[in-house]
Design goal:
With 113 residues, the chain is mainly alpha-helical. It has two domains: 68 residues, no CATH class; 32 residues, no CATH class. Strands 1-2 form a two-stranded antiparallel ribbon. Strand 1 and strand 2 form a beta hairpin. The longest helix is centred in the middle third of the chain and has 15 residues.
Length: 113
Amino acid sequence: ARYFDKTSRKVGNEFRDYIFEHQPEITPTNLRSFAEKFAADHKLDLPFVVDPKGELAAKISADKNLGVAVGIQHTPTIYVVSNKTQGKPFVEVVDRSKLFELIDTMKREFPLS
């Protein structure tokens, strides 16, 4: 995404959206092919070596360090929020396969009035 930001912030954000949309399908092995398809669909060149000087890697590292500093441990970060007034009114969904289970539990414990 940082590479596509060099074209424009809009294109970088479109790439981020594209990657999030296809996240379940993407592996370290096929990530490059997804980037190539996005580049081709947007009539952009994707060089063989995207970041030869490590400049984009430094920006990514800074982004990651900022996330760690503010308590983000992974992305996407998903919360199930209730109308609970005591204690924590939300639960972080760490295991996405349990998202609906957490929603159902929250609905049982804190039904709408």
